[in-house]
Amino acid sequence: MGMRIFFTRLYILLAIIAFATPQAMAQKSKKKQFTVVIDAGHGGVDPGALGRKSKEKDINLNVSKLLASMIDDKYPEVKVIFTRTTDVKIPLVQRADIANNANADLFISIHSNASKSTSANGCETFTLGAGSSVEAKAAAMYENEVILSEENFEEIYKGFDPRSSESYIIFELIRNHDMELSAEIAQFVQNGMVKESKLVNRGVSSAGFLVLHRTVMPSILVELGFITNSKDESLIASKEGQRKLAKGIFDGFSKYYEIYGKKTAKSCEEKPVRVKEEKPQTTENKPQSVAKNKPVFKLQIMASSTQLDAKDKRFQGEKTQCYKENGMYKYTIGESNSYTEIVELKKRLSGKFKESFIVAFLNGKKINTQEAVKLSQKNK
Fold it and tell me: Which of 102, 122, 275, 292 could form a disulfide with 322 if both were Cys (CB 3.0 to 4.6 A apart)?
């Protein structure tokens, strides 16, 4: 991709990032209390997806309340905020603003999936991204279409058309600066839901959900199961099924909170440490030499609670680097002072690592990726 096209796309992206208000961005301040916002999707005149005997909006709200109760019971020090507690419609922009204005540490949006195919089934957890599959993009388009019924949506969402694939260009380059933490809790939550509910595991995916795009903290969107599948609906519409799903999400939250939440509350962040690893296989993506005192961009492909062998099959033959942060081993491919080069690397490897994302470092210390892009432009 030529530099002119790249910066044109970057300009478009930064313009639409106006979704996240400057006031919300400025509210990132030190605090002692960990805050989680639970968003029950749809509501009021917007029922969401419809099953044979249930409505998505009701399922989402029930699971949200159960989840909040579980958090309150085990972690009374955690502040839980709802985007809605009754059957009312809340615009997408307002849902994210509730989290931003509360200076929340985590945003969990709860939904129930739907498909034209009644055979589609299983639970899935999403993070923000361009869309890791055709199904993921379709799910995002479906959820985003709710803005069409909102007043002045053209102005509020800066001309974003949820039905046009062209609009989703904004998710191709820079992803949410909290993407790494979002990816980790997404995996924790997905594992918890599958274990508790026994639903088919559709895994963790990325897609362009507007409600996640506007938030300025780690954020995920959960699809509990397919309301259009008779077996899934029987589970997610039942009290016991909803309890199991809420427990699965809670287990994921609990693991995340024990690793990151308590440290966040103390305003403590662990410096990344290089991990000694065996000599990996040589590949075409050999790390380039990088200049000191300049941002270094890398493509993170996965994280693990245990150290992996350099020839682990999950690396698919690619040469990796590893750093340790908050007790997790995190694996990256490539390194460059050029953000554009790592974007191109991400595209080349998208078939192998669909959930990869770009991270940045400065003199060995991890920094915000968006800030790194700005800093690299100033240094030119």
Answer: 275
Secondary structure percentages of the chain, helix, strand, coil, to 5 = 40, 20, 40
The residue count for the chain = 380
- What residues are paired with 359 via a beta bridge? 298
How many alpha carbons fall within 13 Å on the CB side of residue 370?
13
Looking at the DSSP bridge assignments, the partners of residue 333 are 299
Distance, in Å, from the CA atom of 169 to the CA atom of 13, rounded to the nearest integer, reads: 8
For residue 262, how far is the Cα from the chain centroid?
20
DSSP state of 43: B
Q: Which long-range contacts (CB under 8 A, 24 or more apart) does 146-153 make?
A: 146/42, 146/46, 146/92, 147/91, 147/92, 147/93, 147/210, 149/46, 150/91, 150/92, 150/93
Angle at 39 between CA 38 and CA 44, to 5 degrees: 140
d(CA 174, CA 15): 13
**Which residues contact residue 47 at a Cβ distance below 8 angstroms, ignoring those fewer than 6 apart?**
55, 56, 57
Q: Give 143-195 as a 3 state SS string.
A: HHHHHHHCCCHHHHCCCCCCCCHHHHHHHCCCCCCCHHHHHHHHHHHHHHHHH
- Considering the entire predicted model, what is its pTM? 0.68
Q: Which long-range contacts (CB under 8 A, 24 or more apart) does 5-13 make?
A: 6/173, 6/340, 6/343, 9/169, 9/172, 9/173, 10/173, 10/174, 12/169, 12/170, 13/169, 13/170, 13/173, 13/174
- What is the Rg, in whole angstroms, of the alpha carbon atoms belonging to the chain? 20
pLDDT tens for 258-275 read 988 775 433 323 344 344
- Tokens found for residue 146: 């709710």
CA distance 31 to 14: 28
Cβ count near 33 (within 10 Å)? 11
Please write the tens of the pLDDT for every residue from 152-191: 766 676 666 766 766 655 565 545 456 778 888 999 999 9
How does DSSP classify residue 112?
Answer: E
